[in-house]
Amino acid sequence: MPTPSMEDYIEQIYNLIDTKGYARVSDIAEALNVHPSSVTKMVQKLDKDDYLLYEKYRGFILTEKGKKVGERLVFRHELLENFLEIIGVDEENIYNDVEGIEHHLSWNSIDRLGDLVKYFQDDQKRVDDLRETQKNNK
Questions:
Q1: 3-state secondary structure at position 80
Q2: Residue 105 per-residue DSSP state
Q3: What Å distances lie between residue 129 and 80, 113, 125, 134, 136, CA to CA?
Q4: Helix (H, G, I), strand (E, B) or coil at 87
Q5: Which residues contact 105 (CB under 8 A, 6 or more apart)?
Q6: d(CA 84, CA 6)
Q7: H or E element that contains 54
Q8: Do the beta carbons of residue 3 and residue 13 sit within 8 Å?
Q9: Which are the contacts of 100, defined by CB distance < 8 A and separation ≥ 6?
Q10: C-beta atoms surrounding 63 within 10 Å
Q11: Close Cβ partners of 24 (under 8 Å, ≥ 6 residues apart)
């Protein structure tokens, strides 16, 4: 199992490759607000743990294991954003809240939140009822 820090890197690498077709150390460093040397160290660790293939001075690619983990991490992130949006969290707080909680929930909890999000997304009236309840409780 990757550590929360490893998860952040895998998720970022997955997103960069998905959007740009590649991920560079400098892009990852900028996105995670860390030094390039920290990225290089983590890339080497992720290579050692078979999440990616790294060749010094040539770059890296995610392995199948890395892609699966990256896909699951992106799913978790997007699910938590959807959940917080549904329950009425202010948009400007959603990203930081997701970053704060995503590593602290079990996958079982994530799956149950997924069920709840689907329940609300299947019927807009449910979301409207929730908003009305929130309005009445203020």
A1: helix
A2: S
A3: 20, 18, 6, 9, 11
A4: coil
A5: 113
A6: 24
A7: strand 52-55
A8: no
A9: none
A10: 16
A11: 16, 59
CA distances from residue 39 to 1, 51, 61, 69 in whole angstroms, order as listed? 19, 14, 14, 18
**pTM score over 0.90:** no
What angle in degrees, to the nearest 10, is found between the helix axes of 91-101 and 64-86? Answer: 130
Kind of pairing, strands 52-55 and 59-62? antiparallel
Residues across the chain: 138
Rounded to whole angstroms, the Cα distance separating 117 from 68 reads 22
pLDDT tens per residue across span 91-137: 999 999 999 999 999 999 999 999 999 999 999 999 999 999 998 98
The C-alpha angle with vertex 38 and arms to 32 and 10, in degrees rounded to 5, equals 55
**Cβ-proximal residues to 17 (8 Å cutoff; 6+ apart), any chain:** 23, 61, 62
